[in-house]
Design a protein that fits this description.
With about 400 residues, this protein is of the alpha/beta class. About 30% of the residues lie in helices and about 20% in strands. The protein has two domains: about 5-240, Ribonuclease Z/Hydroxyacylglutathione hydrolase-like (Metallo-beta-lactamase, Chain A, 4-Layer Sandwich), CATH 3.60.15; about 250-410, Rossmann fold (3-Layer(aba) Sandwich). The strands form five sheets. It has a seven-stranded mixed beta sheet with strand order 1-2-7-8-9-10-11, with no helix packed on it. Strands 17, 18, 19, 20, 21 and 22 form a six-stranded parallel beta sheet that branches. The radius of gyration is 24 Å and the shape is elongated.
């Protein structure tokens, strides 16, 4: 495919890279390969939107020079800093020395550190900001956690083209750039990409739906796979449908012991957050409740949270007999998480985690969250030093409860 021939709109060119290998990606193998889409808008202030994978950075910069003198590039928009989209930035920026990098505030230090671009000019954009690029106007919408915190989408007002980076993508090494020219229905590839990359962040699809609801979109130009210019609304609606909450009647059991009520407060925050998300949550003080009643609640629950304060490097109260009993039960299919407050090192929380790992429940861990979603703001076990009253600590607890809620309520 000759990049000089791929014009997707007036003064707008596809300048990406087709990778038709079996591509390792997010611990998957992309059997159909993938396409790294990048776009050049040759306006009065020439602008690049996203780049390609870092493996192809030099090739990308060389081919870009076929369409434009890199010194003429005024802006490079980075919607998402993951290297399969921003990876070509380093090579391009070495030549496009006059270009200002456009991104969200969170993205600036990431780009600076990843590509050693500390001395470059940055334009930080926020939700609803616009940028005149000389004949076209770009509108920016922040869409955090689709699928990392710094992500945004870009919309060209005059062309009615949405540049949503990972969102609305497909992992296909395309032979024809547009979905209507593919020769087959791309819906399953579209859904497959959503399931693998976006669905773990489905809570944030609501932000996306809000961001695009008033936009007149004639074309979706994502950063992987096919560009969509027919049945655009169908694909937007698919995201709304796939991310909806269809599972009802889910329950959680929250069991704790506490010294100064800090772990009790954590249990209350977990309960309130779960209930706000449609999960029926029951809280048990293990030192004041009958163990049989607690076990009955756990057996009826879909998610189980066990917490304790730490005293002398151990749990307190009646938790240990309960945890030993849980290891004898068949609790397969339930989600489990440890939590607790502490003043020094919080060993009790880790002891609970060890006990939970001895059951056949699916025990949540930070490692698994990162590997499955890339999220770094969700942490398991849930550890809070002293009181959970401070906003940052409260948010940590809420993040964990929301994550479990999303797992329970997933439509897929």
């Amino acid at each position: 495919m000759n990049i000089s021939d791929i014009k997707i709109a007036k003064d707008t060119y596809w300048v990406g890279k087709i990778d038709n290998r079996e591509v390792p990606f997010h611990r998957l193998i992309l059997a159909k390969g993938t396409t790294y889409n990048s776009y050049l808008l040759k306006t009065g202030k020439p602008t690049v939107i996203d780049t390609v994978d870092m493996e192809f950075g030099r090739e990308y910069a060389d081919r870009m020079a076929e369409l434009i003198d890199p010194l003429d590039i005024a802006y490079i928009v980075i919607n998402h800093t993951e290297p399969d989209h921003s990876g070509g930035l380093a090579a391009l920026a070495m030549r496009a020395t006059n270009a200002t990098i456009v991104c969200t505030e969170i993205a600036v230090p990431e780009i600076q550190e990843m590509y050693k671009l500390h001395s470059r000019n940055y334009l930080v954009v926020r939700d609803g900001d616009t940028l005149d690029i000389g004949g076209k106007t770009l509108l920016f919408k922040e869409t955090p956690y689709l699928h990392t915190a710094e992500t945004m989408i870009t919309y060209c007002i005059e062309d009615k083209i949405l540049y949503p980076c990972d969102i609305f993508s497909t992992h296909v090494a395309v032979e024809k750039l547009f979905s209507d020219e593919a020769g087959f229905d791309i819906t399953e590839d579209f859904k497959g990409y959503y399931s693998a990359i976006i669905h773990p962040h489905r809570r944030y699809v609501r932000t996306l739906m809000e961001a695009v609801k008033d936009l007149e979109i004639d074309m979706i130009a994502p950063s992987h796979g096919f560009l969509i210019r027919e049945d655009v609304r169908k694909y937007i609606d698919l995201y709304a449908e796939l991310s909806r909450e269809t599972t009802q009647g889910k329950k959680a059991a929250i069991v704790y012991t506490t010294i100064k009520n800090n772990t009790k407060k954590m249990a209350g925050i977990l309960q309130a957050t779960l209930q706000e998300n449609g999960i029926e949550a029951t809280v048990w003080d293990a030192d004041k409740s009958d163990m049989n009643d607690i076990i009955e609640s756990i057996e009826a629950a879909d998610a189980v949270f066990i917490g304790s304060s730490t005293r002398y490097a151990d749990m307190i109260g009646n938790l240990e007999p309960l945890l030993k009993e849980l290891q004898l039960l068949n609790l397969k299919g339930k989600l489990a998480a440890a939590f607790g407050s502490y003043g020094w090192s919080g060993e009790a929380i880790e002891v609970i985690q060890d006990y939970l790992n001895g059951t056949n429940m699916t025990v949540q861990s930070t490692s698994d969250v990162i590997k499955s979603t890339g999220m770094t703001h969700v942490e398991f076990p849930i550890r809070v030093r002293f009181s959970p009253k401070e906003a940052e600590k409260t948010q940590k607890i809420k993040n964990a409860a929301e994550f479990v809620s999303d797992l329970l309520l997933s439509a897929i």
